[in-house]
Automatic annotation (TrEMBL):
Protein's recorded name: AbrB/MazE/SpoVT family DNA-binding domain-containing protein
Record-annotated SpoVT-AbrB domain positions: 2-46
Keyword tags: DNA-binding
One function term, GO molecular function aspect: DNA binding
InterPro entries from the UniProt entry: Repressor-like_regulatory (IPR052975), SpoVT-AbrB_dom (IPR007159), SpoVT-AbrB_sf (IPR037914)
Pfam families in the record: MazE_antitoxin
Classification via SMART domains: SpoVT_AbrB
Length: 93
């Protein structure tokens, strides 16, 4: 699974709530940053349960579908959108 996130001021990244909950990351927790051909973030505590993550993201998608007035994007329409903008615009974060 790959997500596209936008780096904010001072280099901040926002991990969507569904991902934080699925992998058990809470405020103040530490993550490991592995640098190689790319960058990999891993929670210091425990392993990521891929099934739990898929379920959390599936529930998140179901919640998004219930938003009144929501419309489906056309192919390519979101190419320049970033996931955290979705949450910021909805006042979730």
């Amino acid at each position: 699974m790959t997500l596209r996130l936008k780096v904010g001021r001072k280099g901040y990244l926002i991990l969507p709530k569904a991902i934080r909950e699925a992998v058990g990351i809470e405020e103040g927790d530490e993550v490991l940053v592995e640098v190689g051909d790319g960058i990999i973030l891993r929670p210091v505590k425990g392993r990521v349960d891929a099934d739990k993550l898929r379920d959390a993201l599936r529930r998140h998608l179901e919640n998004l579908k219930e938003i009144e007035g929501r419309k489906e994007p056309k192919p390519g329409e979101l190419a320049r959108s970033y996931l955290e903008e979705e949450f910021e615009n909805e006042g979730i974060y």
